Amino acid sequence: MTAVQPDAQTTERTDDTILRLLTEALARKLGEAGIPAAGIGEETDLLDLGVIDSQGLLDVILEVEESGGRTFDPLRIDFETGITLGKLAGAFA
């Protein structure tokens, strides 16, 4: 039996969904700290914001896993080079 591979369009839609969910979760987290999420893009280093620490990052990842139905794979991201929305989205399998 051969596994069906998702086509590029389906994968792109799923990646867009994960990025949207990450953005929404981050906006809520920033809102709780009284910081506007405007201007936060895919390449913004999230830890440099000064509001997202390791626990906050874990909260965002778990929220996206739950609502997005995809699993975060920490082996797909290099935490030493900075954590951005784009890198996080790419680490969801």
TrEMBL record:
One Pfam family, please name it: PP-binding
All copies of domain Carrier, residue ranges: 16-93
InterPro entries this protein is in? Answer: ACP-like_sf (IPR036736), PP-bd_ACP (IPR009081)
What is the protein name given in its UniProt record? Carrier domain-containing protein
Source organism of the structure: Caldovatus aquaticus
